[in-house]
Give the backbone structure.
Amino acid sequence: MPTYDLVVIGTGPGGYVCAIRAAQLGMKVAVVEKNATLGGTCLNIGCMPSKALLHASEMFEEAEHSFAKMGVSVSAPKLDLPSMMNFKQQGIDGNVKGVEFLMKKNKIDVIRGVGRILGAGKVEVSADGKTETIETRNIVIATGSDVAKLKGIDIDEKRIVSSTGALSLEKVPEKLLIVGAGVIGLELGSVWRRLGAEVMVVEFLDRILPGMDGEIAKQFQRLLEKQGFVFKLSSKVTAVDTSGKMLGVKIEPAAGGAAETIEADVVLVCIGRVPYTEGLGLKEAGVALDNRGRVQIDPHFATSVKGIYAIGDVVAGPMLAHKAEDEGVAVAEIIAGQAGHVNYDVIPGVVYTTPEVSSVGKTEEELKQAGIPYTVGKFPFTANGRSKVNQTTDGFVKILADAKTDRVLGVHIVGREAGEMIHEAAVLMEFGGSAEDLARTCHAHPTRSEAIKEAALAVGKRAIHM
Ligand SMILES: Cc1cc2nc3c(=O)[nH]c(=O)nc-3n(C[C@H](O)[C@H](O)[C@H](O)COP(=O)(O)OP(=O)(O)OC[C@H]3O[C@@H](n4cnc5c(N)ncnc54)[C@H](O)[C@@H]3O)c2cc1C
């Protein structure tokens, strides 16, 4: 008799949520974790610490620039970076402890060490020179992802950093050069710019936030430029000279041409993340990978070996914590014989800057490419009463609806609190709702969410406040 019904390797948001759902469904579950703390990338070096620093640095900037205009007179705020880092750490510790509590509450065994799959039903765990083999009916691989490296540029986490180093810099860089204009780079760039760094972002493509709606990204870029961000688009970093006091960053046009060298004291390499499967023994166990090194799964999260499943960043799809969590729930339900499912058409994405950017569903570019006729409704926060009184009017809401059926196909927002606002659109889309449904739903006044209702009205060319 195997000891467990399920062993989950990795305790990020995919793994620990999967374990809890499986325990709820009556399974005997263990999780295997190689890190000293539970919670994976998200809780330790990802979503949560970055959000703590975004919040603290935003407060710093607000105190510096926004309080006076509201009649709140304070002396110029001083930065105490060690205390800010301590604030971040307290947040991490609180959440990590929360996961430990949830493991206990759900009677899930936590096995510390590096997990290696020996084959269906067998996981070897090594820690402190000892190994043990655990027998289980099912295995879920939830080993997440790691930082993508840039060829020829060595990350030392001091001067040339990944997102992990950028969350723990010991002083504010004078000049921070970020390679990659994706979500993580722009969030961490925002943190350090607010704290005093000059920030330049070098991006290979001719736009920021690849994959997000182009019009939203363009307006967002303008807003970041107003804040002091400098963008070098269609450009690539080809080398970093570390010999001097300042780093010499060699930048070339993406299409080729003359190189230039720009000085920076910190370079943040933020060009994406890659699936993490090191030491898992997948090849020997016969678990197939796809052409991008991700664990290959069928629509039910099953790998090429019966009884072994995979979820989260280590498989295809957006590398997002909530996508990993939903897959964790779905695979636990499937293993229990239920019909677990994730709707990949309705996964929100958020950039937690100021203003925030959020989106769910199709972008305008995707609809054009798919040849789907659509109507657009837009509404700017300059015409939203609550935003006006708070003097936070940057950005707009954009709704894309099917031209024939009025079904909402995509919602994109740039503006304060956009990350909280997107969920009414997600619920609407889960239920296959129309712009008309959204427009006829009573929204509390005065809220920023009224801009969503107005954008929905604008799909039918009948916005009230514009
Ligand atoms: C700076 C940053 C900010 C981010 N911000 C956000 C955000 O705001 N919102 C969002 O949705 N996403 C965000 N992400 C992405 C998010 O962190 C990931 O999508 C999410 O953590 C993936 O979850 P996971 O469970 O698949 O893997 P992970 O969280 O990566 O967890 C995998 C776990 O597996 C363990 N592990 C790996 N191999 C083994 C092994 N062989 N044996 C034992 N244990 C093993 C690892 O130690 C790790 O704990 C951010 C990422 C970064 C880096």
